[in-house]
Amino acid sequence: MEKSGFWVTVTALIFYPLSWMGKTVLHNGDRIRREGGVLLVMNHISHLDPPVDAVFVHRQGRVPRFLAKESLFRVPLFKYLIGGAGSIPVTRRSSGAADSLHAAGAALREGKLVVIYPEGTITRDPDGWPMRARTGVARLALETEAPVIPAARWGTKQIFDGYTKKFRPFPRKRVDIRVGEPVDLSAYRGRPVTNELLREVTDVLMTRVRDLLVEIRQEPAPAEFYAPRRAPAD
């Protein structure tokens, strides 16, 4: 078990009860290795995702470091919880975004586990499938040697829908999390890092996430990633 500091312990005391709103069923959790850097790539469907995902990672003996919106670090108390637990603020559409990736890369090289939601926000796909993702995840994956592990989660949106604001904790819902095999990116390493390469790698990673979600939902996914009118910036 990775050592937990004061704020990690405090955060766990809050996040564990939040995660109990759903009955989590974990598939292939042993694919999360117990030590060394890991980049965990996940879909995002509800504001309830971070506590659920943090608990699932913590139960595998790791302390999750989230790439989180910078605005969350300005919320009283919450900024101490996520900041003290090692989360990394992301400042969008500014030079600060690059600083966030550098900080995440440093954490991976130090042997930490970093969780990233490449979509940047809760998906706007009407049926909850992953939407077109930002390419920061590809840059991070290619600049480090840490294994990149895809994972998908389903069920949190049925508890709390961030867009409709519907909160339905009862009856208790099932939340499935399925962890995939590390993605082999050897074919992409050593090539010039262009926008085209970053987009290709991003889509490869999110396709793996989407395929895991297909396994959970047992229904076909759309052929293309949903792109909102105002598409997420790369």
UniProtKB/TrEMBL annotation:
Species whose genome carries this gene: Actinophytocola xanthii
Domain Phospholipid/glycerol acyltransferase: 38-156
Protein name: 1-acyl-sn-glycerol-3-phosphate acyltransferase
Cellular-component GO terms for this entry: plasma membrane
GO biological process, one term: phosphatidic acid biosynthetic process
Keywords of the record: Acyltransferase, Transferase
Record SUPFAM superfamilies: Glycerol-3-phosphate (1)-acyltransferase
SMART domains: PlsC
Keyword Transferase assigned: yes
PANTHER family: 1-ACYL-SN-GLYCEROL-3-PHOSPHATE ACYLTRANSFERASE (PTHR10434), POSSIBLE ACYLTRANSFERASE (PTHR10434:SF55)
Name of one Pfam family that matches: Acyltransferase
One GO molecular-function entry: 1-acylglycerol-3-phosphate O-acyltransferase activity
InterPro entries: Plipid/glycerol_acylTrfase (IPR002123)
